[in-house]
Amino acid sequence: MKNNMLCKTIIASVLFLLSIVLVNAQTSKDYFTTGVNFYKNRQYDSAISNLNKAIGLDPNFTNAYITRGNSYYSKRLYTLAKQDYNKAISLAPNSAINFYNRGNIFSATKYYDSAIADFNKAISIRSDYAPAYGGRGSVYNYKQMYDLAIQDFNKAIILDSMASFAYNNRGLAYVSTGQYEFAINDFKKGIVMDVNKERPFVIINIIEPLARLYRFSEAAKYYNDFRAKYVTGYIDDPYWQFFKKYIEVISQNLPSNDYATALTNLTLAEKLYATKNKAETSEGYGKRGYTSILALKGYVLEQLKNNDEAKQAYEQTLIINPNQPDITIALQRLSQKKDAMVQTDNDPPTINILEPNANSRSISVDDDKVAGTKQHIRGQAIDPSGIKSIMLNNQPLKVEDNGYFDTTVNINAGVNIFTIVATDKHANSVSQNVQIVTGKDKTNAAPANNVVSSVLNANPVYNAILIAECDYADNNIPSLQGPSSDMTKIYNLLVNNYAFAPVNTDTLINATRTNILEAIIKKANAMGENDNLFIFYAGHGQMIKQPDNSEEGFLVPQDAVKDIISTYISSDDLLRTIKYSKAKHILFVADACFAGSLFRDIPSDAPVPVAEAYKDKSRRLLASGNRTAVPDRSEFIEFLRLALQENHSPYITAEQLIDSFKDQYTNSTHLTLQYYPIKNVDDLGGQFVFIRK
Q: Are the C-beta atoms of 429 and 398 separated by less than 8 Å?
C-alpha cells in the first residue's frame, strides 16, 4: 500500500514538473508570436521587450534571436543586431537567412567584403535564395561595381519575378551607368508591384532618369502621383532636402520652361548638399545627388544661353561619374556651338598687362647703374577662339593655354618701348606697347608691411581642404601610418597660427575618389575673388607611363583598385575641379610618391615681394618630390611644419616659405621639392600668401 502511494506521489510530481515545462514552452512561443506582431507593425521597442522574455524562457529559440536582430536592425542598433545574428548562426549554421541577415549588418556598417562573404555563404547554402543575390547586388552597387550588381539583380528576378527590391536596385545601377531607359522600365515594374504602398522610394527614383532624357512633364506626373499616394518618402528626410529641391525643379520649374527659377533652386540645392551631414559620405547611390544637380544645372544654363557656365557644370559632373552619356552628348553639343561661333570670329584678342602695372613703369635706377637691369613683363591675352601666338618686339614668347605669358627683358637708360602683338587662331591681331622709363627715385618708399597691408586690406578669406589616405580598401595597396598625423599637424598650424578659420577648413580621412573630387568642386565653386584655397593631400601616389611615353601622376584614393586607372584621381580630374574657380589663389600641396609628375614640371620666376605676388591669381603645386617614391614617415611634412611654425613675418609667400627650407630638405632626403604653376588653369603668376594671426 505504501509503495502504491509512493508511486502515485512520484508520478504526480513528474506530471506537475512536466506541466510547468509545457506551460513555459507555450509561454515562450506566445511571447515570440506577440513580438513578431509588434515587429510587423514597426513597434520595435515592444517587439524587443517580448522577444527578450521569449529568449529568457528559451535561450535556444533561434527565430526569437532572428526577429529581435531584425528589430535592432530596424532601429539601426547594428552591434546588438549583429550579436543576435551571430547567436542565430551558432544555433543554425546551415540556415541561409542567418548569413543573409548578418550580411545586411556588414553592408549597413560598410564592411563590404565581410558582407559579400556572408551573402556568398547564404547562396552556397541555398542557391535559390533571391534575397541573398539582391543583398550582394546592393553591396556591389555601393562599391560601384555595377556590372556585378546587375548580374545579381538579374538572378534575384529570375528566382522571384515579384522581387520589387531587385527591380528598384537594378534601376539604380542602370542610372549610375547611364542606361536611363532600362532604369525607367525597372522602376515602372517596381511601382506596379508596390500594391501595398510600402515603397515610395521607387516612384521617387524614376524621376531622375526621366529628367536625364528631358521628359520633364512625365517626371512631373510621377511626382504628383507620389504626393497623392504616399504620406512621405526619403526625400522628406532633412538629409535629403537637397535632392527634394532637385526633384521640385524637375517637376515644377522645367515643365513650364521657367529656367530662371530652376537655376535659383538648383543653386540652393547645391548649398543644401554642401551643408548636409558630413558624417554621411557620397558612396554608392549617394553620389547621384551632386552629379544629378550639376547635370541639371548645366542643362538649365544651356537653355539660358550661358554656355561657358554650362560647360563648367557638365565637366565637373563628368569628373565624379564618367558614366553619363547625356553629359558627353551635351558637351559635344556645346563644342559644336562654340566652333560655329568661332568660325565667324573677326574680333582681335584683348591684352591685359599684369607686370609692370601702369603705375610702376618708371624704374627708379641711377643711369650709371642701368646696365644689367632686368624687368618682368607678364600678362594675359584672351580670345574665344584661343591664342595662336604672342610676340614681343618680333620675338615669339611662350604662351600658356589660358593666354598667360611671362618673360624677362633687359632695360636700357632712358625710354624703353616693348611692343606686344597677340594673334588669335583666326589670324586676328592686336598690339599694345609697354613703356618703361629709367630715372632716379625722388620719393620715400613706404614700409614693406604697409605696402602689403594695402594690398591685403580686403581681408581675404582662407579656406583649406586637408586629405589623409591611410587605410585602403584594396588589400593590394599597403596602408600608411603617417598621413593622418601629418594632416593633424598641418591643421593645427593653419588654424592656430594662420588666418584659417576651423569653419572653413575641411578634413577628409580615408576619403573615396568621389568624396575628394566633390569636396574640391564644392569648395572651389563657392569661392569668390577675395578667397584663397589651400589643398593638402597625403597618401599614395602613382606614376603611369602613357602610350606616347609621357608620364602622368595620379593620386590614389581610399577606394582605389590597384592598377585600375579609372579608380585613381588624375591630373586632369584635379584641373577640372579648380579650373573655373574665381578664387584669388589656390595652392595644392601633395606629399605622395611621384607627386612631382602631377600637372607639369617647369620652373617659375614669380615675383618675390609679397604685395606684388598677391595681387595676381595663382594656381600652384608644391610636391614633396619629383618622379620618385617618398617614405610613409614624411620628412617633408616636418620641414613644412617647422617652416610655418618658425615664420614670424605677418605675411609670407609660398615661394618664400619654400625657399626657407628647400636646400636643407634636399640635403637631408636627397629629394627635390617641386613648386610650379598648374597648367591649363587661370594661373597669372601670383603667389599664395600666408597671413599669421
A: no
Predicted confidence (pLDDT) per residue in 246-267, tens digit: 999 999 999 999 999 999 999 9
SS (H, E, C) 280-310: CCCCHHHHHHHHHHHHHHHHHHHHCCCHHHH
Q: Please write the tens of the pLDDT for every residue from 204-241.
A: 999 999 999 999 999 999 999 999 988 888 888 888 89
Domain boundary among 93, 114, 132: 93
Picking from 570, 582, 576, the residue whose alpha carbon sits closest to that of residue 525 is 582
Q: Are residues 395 and 538 in the same domain?
A: no
CA distances, 236 to each of 74, 154, 201, 414, 590 (Å)? 19, 30, 11, 73, 40
List, in sequence order, every residue forming a beta bridge with 213; answer none if it has no partner.
none
Residues in contact with 612: Cβ distance below 8 Å, sequence separation at least 6, in sequence order: 355
One-letter amino acid of 669: T
How much of the chain is in helix, strand and coil states, percent to nearest 5? 55, 15, 30
- Structural contact between residues 512 and 283, judged by C-beta atoms closer than 8 angstroms: yes
Tell which residue, 137, 144, 181, has the closest CA to residue 163: 137
Range of the domain at 394: 350-445
Task: With respect to residue 132, please indicate whether it lies within any of the assigned structural domains.
Answer: no
pTM recorded for the entire structure: 0.77
| Nearest-10 Cα torsion for 271, 272, 275, 276 | -150
- Is residue 386 within 8 A of residue 424, CB to CB? The reply is yes
- 383 and 506 in a single domain? The answer is no
Contact yes or no for 517/554 (Cβ under 8 A) = no
Tell me phi and psi for residue 421, to 5 degrees: -120, 120
Contacts of 662 (CB under 8 A, 6+ apart): 673
Q: How far apart are CA 338 and CA 358, in angstroms?
A: 34
- Residue 1, CA distances (Å) to 7, 14, 291 in order: 10, 20, 92
Give the confidence band of 360 by pLDDT, cuts at 50, 70, 90: low
Q: How many CA atoms lie within 13 A of 328 on its CB side?
A: 7
pLDDT at 356: 82
SS3 state of residue 465: strand
Separation CA 569–CA 586 (nearest Å): 18
The whole-angstrom separation of Cα 497 and Cα 490 is 10
Q: Are 440 and 463 in the same domain?
A: no
The per-residue pLDDT for range 632-663, each reduced to its tens digit, is: 466 888 899 899 999 988 889 999 999 999 88
CA distance 11 to 632: 77
Q: How many CA atoms lie within 13 A of 455 on its CB side?
A: 21
User: Which grid cell is 467?
Assistant: 586629405
CA 17 to chain CA centroid, Å, is 66
**pLDDT (tens digit per residue) in 496-513:** 999 999 999 999 999 999
- Is there a single domain that holds both residue 539 and residue 427? no
Question: How far apart are the two ends of the chain, measured CA to CA in Å?
Answer: 105
CA angle (237, 243, 245) in 5-degree steps: 100
The pair phi, psi for residue 134, each rounded to 5°, is: -65, -40
Instruction: Work out the widest C-alpha separation in the chain, in whole angstroms.
Output: 144
